[in-house]
Amino acid sequence: MASSDIPDIVIGRLPIYLRALTQLAQSGRDVTSSRELGQYLGISSAQIRKDLAWFGGFGKQGTGYHVQTLQQQLQHILHVDRQWPMAVVGAGDLGHALAHYRGFKARGFMVAAVFDNDPEKISEPLENNLVVHPMEKLTEVIGALNIKIAMLAVPAEHAQPVALQLVEAGIQAILNYAPITLIVPSHIRVQYIDPVIELQHMTFYLDQHEGNPGAAPEVPGQVSGVDQ
Amino acid sequence: MASSDIPDIVIGRLPIYLRALTQLAQSGRDVTSSRELGQYLGISSAQIRKDLAWFGGFGKQGTGYHVQTLQQQLQHILHVDRQWPMAVVGAGDLGHALAHYRGFKARGFMVAAVFDNDPEKISEPLENNLVVHPMEKLTEVIGALNIKIAMLAVPAEHAQPVALQLVEAGIQAILNYAPITLIVPSHIRVQYIDPVIELQHMTFYLDQHEGNPGAAPEVPGQVSGVDQ
DNA sequence: TAGATTGTTAATCGATTAACAATC
DNA sequence: TAGATTGTTAATCGATTAACAATC
Question: Which residues of A touch B140 (CB under 8 A)?
């Protein structure tokens, strides 16, 4: 029952299930099945049932799963049945995009503070009453707002030292947008977002001269696999 | 030898190795070992050697790997020993951030065209002589510039139809930033970037009341695992 | 009831790790 | 040479899938 018993690879799929359920709910579906969900996500129905079974029995034989109930259960399991305040560090293009992103709220998150070390950006007003704080205020603001999660959007060469500052300030989870591996204490959670990693994964399968000259229409219908 | 023999999970790690080698090269290292690389990335040395062995023997017994040579080999294997022109679809905050991002060039990519359906954004000038094209020009421009890769940065409700337009236009790989699962023909590669998925993966391990009041400094030193 | 789908166990499959001969 | 590290094989480990009794 301890969360450490549950394979991390299972945890990684739960947010994807949750996202799919949200889509289903929006399209008005009340009930779904592991078969439907699996087909939609490119995952076997057995895997979905087995993943959910780690946390209990949420379905009904013969019927399937009540979309809204399962959604709530997953939100509870993932601790997103609340709003996590987050810090954005780095107020460049990406930092701005993150600070303005409307999609966090409905899924358990909000940007509560933005930091940058560029004097020109300090005090710059953003949406939602946010302003850009100087890096000197990092520990103070993160402590005052009880922030545990940071999105790191600074240039690659600053990412490592800033990450350690964040840890000092009490941050426990970092979503790192800088294209480097961070070295942090082992109790700090880190996830990486680097578009080039994903692009290079795809170009392995692409061939420069695999030309499609003039466009070759194809019948849609199949489903692509799951994301990392 | 056919690329389909090689597990996709192995392919997914190669860009991470390549990124680490770039970091090593920048810090002036000439030679490295599977042990060093593994320690740095939180991966076993055996796995790194086994992954590389799918493509040949790049190392020297007793010595290790020549950083620059291995870098070049991986670039070749991943087909990033060239510059892939890409389309950005959606010229909002995120689209702008992608169009301005400086990090693509050195790693095999460039933004060659930007599209949006908002008349106010059309013809808006961006960096690098880019302008925002109307969606009507999608097929024409993608064909003329021989673009095979698109980054999809439109609102969630438009992502599915736009993805199919991209496929019609000859796009073969999509990096999808919209928080939905895309349904596309099976020969189209799709990778997903959704920060909320990564955040929810981390909040599973966080506890709201696991307070660190007043900041608890900790000794850095250990390394976090590999991303997806 | 008959049909459908769950939760779960056992079988299979694949990925990771350990170990070591080869060799620089 | 002695020490180090590769490439590779065999052993282990873990994840996925198949199958089905339980039951709605």
Answer: none
